[in-house]
Design a protein that fits this description.
With about 575 residues, the protein is α+β, with helices and mostly antiparallel strands.
Length: about 575
């Protein structure tokens, strides 16, 4: 199967694609475009970006066809030996999992826009790129050699799965460097306006890349490519592939500044760990991927939760992050947990299943948990569970190595029962409590986290939110257009009982107008000023203005989480911490 990628007017953002398949021997041929992309467990509906689609035989004669699903076509191929599909694809989204074209670059995730013949999905694929002469290509795919000459813009994939998993960036303005860890080259490619500090990047990336290789002992890739899309606006997004990752970050002028640089390190370490966890270690429901429909699984807390844990944790272990930096990230995960009342409605296992229902948006208020945040906390607690019961002989590292060696390398998917059994094997203890009462139950993780943190001489401190309207009224706001817009309401709080709802706009408080104050609005300050007296708020609900009266209850509602070392700890806790943190 061959693909020819061309474009003439990049300002239109349309890519011209030709798909060529030889040796057609059936009367009807099904042509499929993927319905989703691995790494994002929701339907993508990529076919909506196709403007025109046509089918021809090898001589250019038009063939009749019918679209039979939203992303599948049936072509009449009786008596046809070669099939050519010609279509275009609108490439205007620029994130880590999209396809994008403008006058500066062609960036493609083939899984978005390359069709295939389902029964020939395991056949070799050739990708031919018609590019300007000064363009370079960054990709995990290897370029082909034709007549002993290396063709920079012709690439071979072992099958469609390989092609779908091989994003590329093509541009005249790519910046590139590489490091070598344990004999493996790691390429760092940057597209977009930015000034990479190569020395700093090389130092930090060498540390965590080497540490991941040492953890597993073997890599599922012979080389690896970090493809960075650097935007001029705020952005944070990463998508994993077996021997590469695309990471979108911005704004570019902040790339090497502390906050965004920490994000760059965190997401890079996370996505690299995915080369093992989910790209090769996969739930049985995704072995192999079925691109035509949802691949339901309840193991998102392993696929994404454990990866999120290791994405930060390995930066600590490899000495890229300080203890303070690591516990700040763990605190942020815990904060999201206690702020999300979906933890009382759907378990993280069921939330894994339901990513296919409502994707990665928050959805309706307080409905579900996060496979990233709650999954991270569960991974930490599982790691400590194994260490505690094995007296630090084993850890979650051993579980991941076992899954890689006994499942991934043998091309087998694992089940929830497999995962639970492997944890119990290394812990030599029953995992029933965490598995039943936390992974498969909608509940608060605070008791579990406190117990796990105590093992390494740390504590979880829960105190009233620093903002008066959060801890005393029970509402969170976002300052937008001069109003304080309600983002969240604490169940059964003063605000909830008074009738305040998500998306309400607050106009006044005790006759004082809510106005911009340079950093947001003055709503928080007026709440603090009036203190513990009855408040009268003027709000807008669905374009209707009304007054609300409520009495603050200081310290009753939203809380702040903080994870820190204990003021005093035992020698055993000190030893546990050292073994866990590699310090």
């Amino acid at each position: 199967m061959r693909y020819i990628i061309s474009y003439q007017n990049p300002h239109t953002h349309f890519i011209d694609i030709e798909f060529i398949a030889d040796i057609i021997n059936q009367d009807e041929t099904i042509i499929q475009l993927p319905s989703w992309r691995p790494g994002r467990y929701e339907l993508g509906n990529f076919a909506k970006n196709i403007q025109r689609w046509a089918a021809f035989d090898g001589n250019g004669n038009a063939l009749s066809f019918q679209k039979i699903t939203k992303d599948c076509w049936k072509v009449q191929t009786k008596g046809v030996s070669g099939l050519h599909i010609r279509y275009n694809y609108y490439a205007f989204d620029l994130n880590a999992g999209s396809t994008y074209l403008d006058k500066h670059q062609l960036y493609m995730n083939p899984v978005n826009c390359c069709v295939y013949i389902p029964e020939r999905i395991e056949q070799k694929c050739v990708l031919i790129l018609n590019l300007p002469d000064d363009y370079k290509v960054a990709s995990g795919m290897r370029s082909m050699t034709v007549d002993r000459v290396k063709e920079a813009n012709i690439f071979r994939a072992t099958d469609f799965h390989h092609l779908a998993d091989s994003p590329f960036m093509a541009s005249a303005s790519l910046q590139q460097n590489k490091i070598n860890c344990n004999g493996i080259d790691f390429h760092l490619w940057f597209q977009g306006e930015c000034k990479p500090d190569w020395k700093k990047l090389s130092t930090d990336f060498t540390k965590f890349c080497s540490h991941q290789l040492e953890l597993f002992g073997v890599a599922p890739y012979s080389e690896y490519h970090f493809l960075f899309q650097i935007l001029p606006t705020k952005m944070y997004h990463g998508v994993e592939h077996k021997n590469s990752t695309v990471i979108a970050l911005g704004p570019g002028y902040n790339l090497m500044k502390e906050e965004l640089y920490d994000d760059l390190l965190g997401v890079s370490c996370h996505e690299l760990f995915h080369a093992w966890n989910i790209k090769t270690i996969r739930p049985v429901e995704m072995m192999p991927y079925d691109y035509t429909k949802e691949n339901y699984s309840k193991l998102g807390y392993v696929c994404e939760g454990i990866t999120t844990y290791y994405g930060d944790y390995l930066l600590l272990r490899s000495k890229v992050f300080s203890e303070e930096q690591y516990f700040q990230t763990l605190t942020e995960r815990m904060q999201k947990h206690i702020d999300n009342f979906g933890r009382y409605h759907i378990s993280v296992a069921d939330s894994s299943f339901d990513t296919w229902l409502d994707g990665y948006v928050p959805g309706i208020p307080n409905r579900k948990t996060s496979i990233y945040d709650e999954g991270n906390l569960l991974a930490f607690c599982t790691d400590i569970f194994i260490r505690k019961h094995s007296e630090n002989k084993y850890s979650l590292d051993d579980v991941m190595r076992y899954l890689y060696n006994e499942f991934a390398t043998k091309e087998k998917g694992y089940s929830e029962t497999d995962y639970k059994g492997i944890v119990e094997h290394f812990a030599s203890a029953s995992f029933d409590d965490i598995y039943t009462n936390y992974i498969h139950a909608a509940t608060d993780y605070t008791p579990l986290m406190k117990n796990a943190l105590d093992y390494i001489g740390c504590e979880l401190v829960i105190s009233p939110s620093l903002k008066f309207h959060e801890h005393a009224l029970g509402l969170k706001t976002h300052e937008l257009g001069g109003f304080a817009k309600v983002l969240a309401v604490y169940p059964d709080s003063a605000a909830d009982k008074a009738g305040i709802a998500v998306n309400d706009d607050i106009l006044t408080i005790n006759t004082m107008q809510v106005k911009p104050d340079g950093t947001g609005t003055n709503f928080s300050e007026w709440c603090t000023y009036f203190g513990n007296i009855e408040l009268t708020l003027t709000i807008i609900t669905n374009s209707v203005c009304k007054e609300i009266k409520l009495k603050p209850q200081p310290g009753s509602f939203y809380k702040t989480a903080f994870i820190k070392p204990l003021s005093s700890f035992t020698e055993k806790q000190k030893n546990n911490f050292g073994l866990w943190s590699n310090s």
